[in-house]
TrEMBL record:
Name of the protein in its database record: Hyaluronan and proteoglycan link protein 2
Keywords carried by this UniProt record: Disulfide bond, Extracellular matrix, Hyaluronic acid, Immunoglobulin domain, Repeat, Secreted, Signal
Location in or out of the cell: Secreted, Extracellular space, Extracellular matrix
Signal peptide: 1-27
Domain Link: 149-243, 246-339
Cystine bridges: C195-C216, C291-C312
Superkingdom of origin: Eukaryota
GO molecular function, one term: hyaluronic acid binding
Similarity comment text for this entry: Belongs to the HAPLN family.
Gene: HAPLN2
Gene3D superfamilies xrefs: Immunoglobulins, Mannose-Binding Protein A, subunit A
Length: 340
């Protein structure tokens, strides 16, 4: 039968006991009984551009006796994950539309990193690399973030015409996709100030305000204002679209053209009339600066300014200016063409 605890031993136990409880209250977890096979990523956010090749790192510290690695994408605003690829270390099988452009890097025998070729706008988001070894699964999460630009969009009918699904389609028609909250927030930090509320990819409705003012939600702190939960089918707002670098280039054709003449002018040059997303991408990534209004494919007239000056829109900040949607028969503008 063990003897009674000595006084020094008892004091040592009493000192450690509240210390252990304190750490448990802070959320410290007990040591894992078995090995952790996946190494934590050095960088959890991977930056890329449309059309590039992106690598999402996932590396094993040691190989389990038998395992599979499952890559999936966490869809924003939806409580589901989309399967991309499954590998057993020797063979891999892709799933879904992204699986056809995804492959394993295979830099070494412990490398389970995912390579995505020809990155698209819809590839941005959160990814999960999950190790399935039949005992205790583990995973690491990474975020693929595209460099791009957010632009507000409304149709020729005026403001607040889109439900969620129409806003999503409108952005895609203008070479973009609905922006995420993170993309809108970054655009706000870079100077986006807009009073009209618009749909975001997650299904929320918000608008960014740099200078609080009466017509823009009233006084208060600058930031991203929110309309709260909205009905995706019934409620109608504008859209915040996101686009990234394009494979082609945008150029201006001067003249006094109608919209149909603008289409013909671009065709003669082996191009098409640029979409709104094309113009924003050219302004953002190529520094396009043109103090002339030009037709775009949706029937709007806009022009990009990187160096603000008095007779070029009159605003102090760079941006893409808009003349709205003139009559298609009005012969008063040049056109912006897009060629790949």
């Amino acid at each position: 039968m063990p003897g009674p605890l000595s006084l020094p031993t008892l004091c040592h136990f009493l000192l450690l006991w509240p210390f252990a409880i304190f750490h448990k209250a802070l959320g410290d977890t007990a040591p894992h009984p078995g090995p952790h096979y996946l190494l934590p990523p050095i960088h959890e956010v991977i930056h890329s551009r449309r059309g590039a090749t992106a690598t999402l790192p996932c590396v094993l510290g040691a190989p389990p006796p038998s395992y599979k690695v499952r890559w999936s994408k966490v869809e924003p605003g939806e409580l589901r994950e989309t399967l991309i690829l499954i590998t057993n270390g020797l063979q891999a099988r892709g799933y879904g539309p992204l699986g056809g452009r995804a492959r394993m890097r295979r830099g070494h025998r412990l490398d389970a990193s995912l390579v995505i070729e020809g990155v698209r706008l819809e590839d941005e988001g959160r990814y999960r690399c999950e190790l399935i070894n039949g005992i205790e699964d583990e995973s690491v999460a990474l975020t693929l973030r595209l460099e791009g630009v957010v632009f507000p969009y409304q149709p020729s009918r005026g403001r607040y015409q889109f439900n969620y699904y129409e806003a999503k389609q409108a952005c895609e028609e203008q070479d973009g996709r609905l922006a995420t909250y993170a993309q809108l927030y970054q655009a706000w930090t870079e100077g986006l100030d807009w009073c009209n509320a618009g749909w975001l990819l997650e299904g929320s409705v918000r608008y960014p305000v740099l200078t609080a003012r009466a017509p823009c939600g009233g006084p208060g702190r600058p930031g991203i204002r929110s309309y709260g939960p909205r009905d995706r089918k019934r409620d109608r707002y504008d859209a915040f679209c996101f686009t990234s670098m394009t494979a082609g280039h945008v150029f201006f054709v001067p003249g006094r053209l109608t919209l149909s003449e603008a289409h013909a002018a671009c065709r003669r040059r082996g191009a098409t009339v640029a979409k709104v997303g094309h113009l924003y991408a050219a302004w953002k990534f190529s520094g396009l600066d043109q103090c002339d209004g030009g037709w775009l494919a949706d029937g709007s007239v806009r022009f990009p300014i990187t160096s603000p000056r008095p007779r070029c829109g009159g605003l102090p900040d760079p941006g893409v200016r808009s003349f709205g949607f003139p009559r298609a028969q009005q012969a008063a503008f040049g056109t912006y063409c897009y060629s790949e």
